[in-house]
Amino acid sequence: MTEVRQDCDITAKSTAKPDAVSHPAHYTSGGIEAKDALKAAMDGSELSPMAFYWWGCAFKYLWRWTSKNGVEDLRKCRQCIDFLIEEVSE
Prior knowledge:
mainly alpha; DUF3310 domain-containing protein; SaV-like
């Protein structure tokens, strides 16, 4: 964003940086945050706490793989899905 200072005739560029703690770029896609999409997907589901945990982890890695760790995130996602399958199969 650009702002014009009133006290002199120069244009200053904003130095605002993305919020890496509250809204990291690798968890936002198309204006949608992963946490909001996951909440919508999980709404109404009746699973054990561990099943929800593994589902959330898998979702997180799948959501961010193209903008953070690539194939490593896909492998982590696959492992979380395997843990989720074990949890819901018990």
